[in-house]
Write a structure and sequence with these properties.
By secondary structure, this protein is of the alpha+beta class. Helix content is about 60%, strand content about 15%. The protein contains 20 helices and 10 strands.
Length: about 525
């Protein structure tokens, strides 16, 4: 084989086959330069093979163009490996420029990785921020839910309780766990089922149902609740179930009830004021008017005037007028709650109308009833001074104004004449019934002063009691009987009689004089009563 053919085969094996072409080496023993060239090519080929398999740890000691290019490639690959590790560690500032299009694509990839990392950092930062906000929001909502007075109940579509705020314990006495675990909705809050039923029949929109109900707490106390039920939705607007907000409105209901009662009292007071003033003259009109106001006026009734002394417990508060009115309202309500009784406020006291069983006159029954009213006042307001006058009886309602004046007069007379008593009947006032109209005039005081003036002045000047002695003499008692009552000898009484006659310049044996002096003494008592009132 000629040398050309041998070299051709050798180069072919070196370039295309693996391993050393041993079958040709023997023929080249005489050509050491070719053998050296074969060794160098084998070294470069092995070095290239190792690089192609990713082994960059080999060292190539050869020099030359081919070896230099391979070593430059190895160096670039090593640097690329280092850059890749730096990129993997998060350094996206690395750039390569020795591999043409690969370098451009690689650099674009790094930029996108850098942008992706920045986006992820921003996302994570925003996510962390939202988590912090959510946690703070949850804490705030939890703080509000745990401390608010309103009760919040969240239920699913099957009306099963998902959440109940801790405020239920303050509101109803149950714990949230009891309410949820024991499914107490139907037992504890039955109105929730009624609300859900009303929501189901509503058409369109976002239905909500508001209810006010009386509710029993766990301890048995009855309170008023306001419940607002609406549809619960998530952030995307999808229905989650039902949300119910429940609050205690007992105080509001009590205030509304007080306001309603105050309004009804005012209407009742206005009606009786018109009746007593004679503004309603026709009896049928009075009954019709009362019926429209819800006042059941009986055909036969007793009439009372309860006199209130404001020096007692009614003025025990700083704001005396306001407290007096509150106490007066309480007392009127209590009297109205008595059997068959209607009470209303009048100047200086309270008017009371009580039904009679029939038109027969029952004075004893009226006095007993009046005494029960006095006992009620004493029980409700200990220490309060109260007196009650009972009117005489007339069948017609048109006489109610006159009858009420008689009841007031009975108090005026009774407080002076029978000061140890608290109940006075107009029928017991005797001659005072006739004297009362005259006692209200200015002439009454003139008459008393003209008739008894000198004797009154004498008693006041000398600290005597000749007016009292005169009253006993005029009562029809003998001088001896007067002496026994006053513990004086009858001659002393006789001397007093003569002194009275001298002072007044009259004779007590005259019937006309006795009548005039008796009338003056009776008027004196009534005038004093008028001054006291």
């Amino acid at each position: 084989m000629n040398h050309t053919k041998t070299i051709e085969l050798l180069l072919n094996d070196l370039l295309r086959k693996r391993g050393k072409p041993a079958f040709l080496i023997d023929e080249l023993n005489d050509h050491p330069a070719i053998l050296q060239l074969v060794e160098e090519i084998m070294t470069i080929r092995e070095f290239t093979y190792r690089i192609s398999n990713g082994d960059l740890s080999q060292n190539l000691s050869m020099k030359g163009y081919w070896a230099g290019a391979l070593k430059a490639l190895q160096s670039n690959l090593r640097h690329l490996t280092w850059q890749t590790s730096m990129i993997a560690s998060g350094d996206f500032n690395q750039r390569i420029d020795f591999m043409g299009d690969f370098s451009a694509s690689f650099n674009i990839m790094i930029q996108r990785l850098k942008q992706a990392e920045e986006n992820e950092k921003n996302y994570m930062s925003e996510l962390k921020k939202r988590e912090t906000q959510l946690k703070e929001s949850e804490q705030k909502y939890r703080l509000i839910a745990e401390n608010m007075d309103d009760m919040i109940v969240l239920m699913d579509d099957d009306m099963k309780v998902i959440y109940c705020s801790p405020s239920i314990e303050r509101l109803l006495g149950y714990t949230a766990a009891e309410f949820i675990e024991l499914s107490l909705t139907e037992q504890v809050l039955p109105f929730i089922g009624i609300q859900s039923g009303k929501m189901a029949v509503q058409d369109g929109g976002d239905p909500s149902v508001l209810m006010e109900v009386e509710q029993q707490r766990k301890d048995g106390e009855i309170i008023w609740l306001e419940s607002l039920m609406s549809t619960a939705k998530d952030e995307e607007g999808k229905n989650m179930g039902f949300l119910c907000v429940i609050r205690n409105i007992t105080q509001r209901k009590l205030a509304e009830n007080d306001l309603q009662q105050s309004y009804e009292r005012r209407l009742k007071n206005d009606f009786f004021t018109k009746l007593l003033n004679g503004d309603i003259e026709i009896e049928s009109d009075a009954y019709n008017h009362a019926y429209r106001l819800g006042i059941q006026l009986p055909n036969h009734f007793s009439l009372y005037f309860l006199s209130i002394d404001d020096s007692g417990s009614f003025l025990s508060e700083v704001n005396a007028l306001e407290q007096r009115q509150k106490n007066m309202d309480v007392l009127i309500d209590q009297l109205t709650n008595q059997e068959a009784a209607i009470a209303w406020e009048v100047p200086e006291g309270i008017g009371i109308l009580s039904a009679m069983c029939d038109s027969s006159y029952h004075k004893t029954k009226e006095i007993q009833l009046a005494e029960s009213y006095i006992d009620l006042v004493a029980l409700s307001f200990p220490g309060l001074q109260a007196h009650i006058g009972i009117a005489d009886y007339f069948e017609s309602l048109t006489h109610v104004a006159l009858r009420f004046k008689h009841a007031q007069s009975a108090v005026r007379i009774g407080k002076r004449i029978w000061n140890q008593q608290k109940v006075y009947h107009f029928d017991d006032c005797g001659v005072y019934q006739v004297l009362i109209p005259f006692a209200d005039s200015d002439e009454s005081e003139v008459f008393v002063k003209k008739t008894l003036g000198p004797l009154l002045e004498y008693d006041q000047r000398n600290q005597t009691e000749l007016v009292d002695t005169l009253e006993k003499i005029l009562s029809g008692l003998s001088l001896k009987e007067v002496g026994k009552q006053t513990f004086f000898h009858y001659k002393t009484i006789q001397n007093r009689k003569q002194r009275i006659e001298n002072i007044l310049n009259v004779s007590l044996d005259s019937a006309e004089v006795r009548m005039m002096l008796g009338t003056a003494i009776h008027l004196l008592k009534i005038v004093q009563v008028k001054a006291d009132l």
